[in-house]
Specification:
By secondary structure, this protein is of the alpha/beta class. It is 42% helix and 15% strand. It has eleven helices and nine strands. Helix 3 packs across helix 4, helix 5 packs across helix 6 and helix 6 packs parallel to helix 7.
């Protein structure tokens, strides 16, 4: 493991070990207080962020490291100077690069031209740090994730991609339920289904909301991704039947609700569900830091 660009690049063993290490760091933070002693991590952010920026910044500090934050005020990646030069220069000083970018190709270029580990903190294709936090959260609820039945409802996006790869590697069952025309990337689906078959899991896709029955947890995300100028009025009728509400939770028999946040109450999920007893949203948010710390320790120790 030289970088974390996507969960699909992990082996099953690497994924399981990362989740185990994250649990250990969370339970015994003092044991890792100097894990990144003398290490510096540059955080390159093309997109604004709450959870990603704060969880990485504080997490690096808790490990004894130092973080440097660079946003678009310093020039968008690839515009002021080539991404290759950016990566090579940062590699002269920093021990790792955390990148939150519009294009996945930018993250790949940083890894190709830099000489230090690169962590994808979100791109248009993948959100591996979120996926790791999500499966860490589920691992705290279920002893055997291979027996998990997870449903994703709504717009197929970078979060969906990472969840599909993670579920596939862990041998879990995952159902993706989307409106027609809003499914995840077809190539990603085929790759994830192949990985799932190799590990005893199953990945199913459908437009039929009634297929929600028999799942342990329901996961949703915003219907309009950051940077998308689509009007809610234009998609409300199409997505309306895919709103996660108490009726859907009961129909699924699901005990838990998940969302990567920010959540829009009354849109993709009702307030009684997102703020309800079975909501795991704050555990997911906290676990971003622990999962990312596990990645940092693995890459830099």
């Amino acid at each position: 493991m030289n970088h974390l660009l996507s969960i699909k690049e992990l082996s099953q063993q690497e994924l399981v070990e990362l989740l185990s290490l994250a649990k250990t760091i969370k339970a015994n933070p003092s044991d890792y207080r100097t894990a990144l002693d003398g290490k510096s991590v540059v955080m390159l952010f093309e997109k604004p962020s709450l959870r990603t920026r704060v969880s990485f910044d504080i997490g690096i500090n808790k490990l004894g490291g130092h973080s440097v934050y660079l946003d678009q005020q310093n020039g968008a990646l690839g515009q002021r100077e080539p991404v290759s030069d950016f990566a090579a220069n940062i590699s002269c000083w920093a021990d790792a690069i955390v990148a939150r970018t519009f294009l996945h190709s930018t993250v790949e270029a940083l890894a190709e031209h830099g000489t230090v580990p690169v962590i994808n903190a979100l791109s248009d294709m993948y959100h591996p740090c979120q996926g790791l936090a999500d499966f860490l959260t589920l691992a705290e609820q279920f002893d055997d994730l291979s027996q998990l039945k997870l449903a994703y409802v709504g717009d197929g996006n970078n979060v969906t991609h990472s969840l599909m790869y993670g579920a596939a590697l862990l041998g879990a069952t995952m159902t993706v339920i989307c409106p027609q025309g809003h499914f995840p990337d077809g190539k990603v689906v085929l790759e994830a289904q192949k990985i799932a078959a190799a590990h005893g899991g199953e990945l199913m896709l459908t437009t039929d909301v009634d297929k929600i029955a028999g799942h342990d947890a329901i996961y949703t995300d915003t219907w309009i991704s950051m940077g998308d100028n689509t009007s809610l009025d234009d998609i409300n009728d199409k997505f309306g039947p895919y709103q996660v509400n108490s009726t859907m939770m009961q129909k699924a028999g699901a005990k838990y609700f998940m969302h990567c946040l920010p959540a829009y109450r009354g849109v993709e999920v009702t307030a009684d569900v997102v703020d309800g007893e079975g909501s795991l949203i704050l555990q997911q948010a906290e676990n971003r830091m622990h999962a990312q710390n596990a990645v940092l320790v693995t890459l830099l120790s």
